[in-house]
Amino acid sequence: MARNGFAEFLVARRGELRPADVGMPDGGRRRTPGLRREEVAVRAGVSADYLARLEQGRDTNPSVAVVDALADALLLEGAQRHHFGVLALASGNESRCPGSESPTEQLGETIRAVLDALQPTPAFVIGRRLNVLGWNHAWADFATPLGLIGEHGEANPVWYTFTDPRARRTLRNWSAAADTMATALLRAKLRWPGDEELLGMIDALKREPEFLERWKPHRVGGEPVSSVLEFDHPVYGEVDVPFETMTTDRDQSVVVWLLDQTATRSQGLRLVHNRAANE
């Protein structure tokens, strides 16, 4: 049986704790890093067999008391503890969670109008799988030389970052950008845990070592991610692009690249005009 999100969290968190973290002696050399399953079971007051069933996804109905005891045993606090509880409630019921219908995503007329109104500020719209559903001319002008838009008009910033060799050449802060993209995809999975196409995309990306290294479902609410993309643009040179994301009520988000706030060595970058100067 495949692990659910709660089971993945259990295994990942147990693997990153050390005996010293919970006041236990090291106990010599260990075959695998982290706490042993038996050690967590003792701390939580459950049997090792029951914990094994939870970690393997064979038991998907832990009680509130068990979830609280496991959270204490794993030293979970704040956002992580809350996230752990949410995963426990959804355990085994992902197919009945919001988003299980995997709809065909289309750009609505209202959102299209928003994109046009933002011109000449580069902006685009992403759906629940982070596919780019539409963009304005300013974003296309900037993104096309980077290879972000495919020859058939497809675009997905997460897929581009981890699978397109051009991403490493054009993103000077590729590692930070990769962290940002993995976190964005994780948040999408938390919001739509039953979306089959989204889950399929995540499974495909897990074949990429750099993505798999960053895929840490138990780190929700952890370190902040970068909100700046640092490009070595083939046309405009070095350009730092702060961005903002605004979520709509249609399972879609408008992403705005604030190029008017950037400093660039290229005097030719005028994708965002000074409105006052043109009035």
From TrEMBL:
CDD domains cross-referenced by the UniProt entry: HTH_XRE
Which SMART domains does the record cross-reference, listed alphabetically?
A: HTH_XRE (SM00530)
User: What domain of life does the native source organism fall in?
Assistant: Bacteria
* PROSITE patterns to which the protein is assigned, alphabetical: HTH_CROC1
Question: Which part of the chain is the HTH cro/C1-type domain?
Answer: 34-74
Q: Where are the transmembrane segments?
A: none
The record, for InterPro entries, names:
Cro/C1-type_HTH (IPR001387), Lambda_DNA-bd_dom_sf (IPR010982), MLTR_LBD (IPR041413)
Pfam families registered for this protein in UniProt: HTH_31, MLTR_LBD
SUPFAM superfamilies named in the record: lambda repressor-like DNA-binding domains
PANTHER family, per database record? BLL4672 PROTEIN-RELATED
UniProt protein name? Helix-turn-helix transcriptional regulator
Organism name: Nocardia xishanensis
According to the entry, what is the taxonomic lineage of the organism?
Bacteria, Bacillati, Actinomycetota, Actinomycetes, Mycobacteriales
